[in-house]
Amino acid sequence: MAEIIQQRIEDRIPELEQLERVGLFTSNEVKAMIKKATALEYKLHRVTISKEDFITYIQHEINVLELIKKRRSRIGYHFKREEIELTIMQRINNVFRRATAKWKDDVQLWLSHVAFCKKWNTQTRLSKVFSSMLAIHPDKPALWIMAAKFEMEDRNSSESARHLFLRALRFHPESEKIYQEYFRMELMHAEKLRKQQQELEQAKMDLGEYEFPKEIMDAKLAEIVYRDASTKVKGAVFVLSLLKIAEIFDFTKTLQDIIIQDLQSRHADDPLTWDYMAKRELEVGLGGEMGAELSTAKGRASDIARR
């Protein structure tokens, strides 16, 4: 055990030398760090180890990262990041991996690793963390949604997000939340493509090298998601939740009409359907009359009552 710990401490020497050489830490601080690191390493290599020892180790290393960040800002030194921060982050990731391998069922531990990767922008590592976490916890829809949103919003990969949603639905074929977020994702992707195309056209650039699939931009993929969802999850409440998501986007009139038709044909016996239709008709009517006054107050009241 002593040999392993000694090797781990020696592995730190290059990074510690850099910290002292560039003026981020003093010689005494480096010596104190070696002493602290040795004590923490011994705790992780005892016969009986605890989760708290791993958490303490990780928190210490994160505190070092935060301190380095502050001192870099103070002295204006922004070099040697690969030799310093990167090695510390790799060490933290390795300790997280050892901890989650031993305490697989601790979702909070997994989420702490996710939070660390997000804060320090280690996207490649984060994809691997999500993959490992979902292999252990496929029964938790929220984790699938979190992973898909990361792929869509942080890595800008709609294809990876779509793949995760489809995998999630194999485990949770009747999950309302997964279908809602999948539906929203397809519409967000369509909106993004439409904006990109518009910007390129305004700049009078050649669109030949760019891909703008019509089925995506016209919300056809979102429609497929809706149709699949509406056959798996029953009830007007769920259909209305998808309709309200579609209403957020200004290019979904056709999709909205499809959902409304289904709502009226499949859920005609549900009061929610007609409550929604009455409110929609009223809003449309009032919206159309903005700026155009009816002749009398009585006429306005009569029109509202009719609608």
From TrEMBL:
SUPFAM superfamilies: TPR-like. Residues 9-91 form the U3 small nucleolar RNA-associated protein 6 N-terminal domain. One of its GO terms (molecular function) is snoRNA binding. Its main location: nucleus. One of its GO terms (biological process) is maturation of SSU-rRNA from tricistronic rRNA transcript (SSU-rRNA, 5.8S rRNA, LSU-rRNA). It comes from the Eukaryota. The keyword Methyltransferase does not apply. InterPro entries: HAT, TPR-like_helical_dom_sf, Utp6, UTP6_N. PANTHER family: HEPATOCELLULAR CARCINOMA-ASSOCIATED ANTIGEN 66, U3 SMALL NUCLEOLAR RNA-ASSOCIATED PROTEIN 6 HOMOLOG. Belongs to the UTP6 family. This is U3 small nucleolar RNA-associated protein 6 N-terminal domain-containing protein.
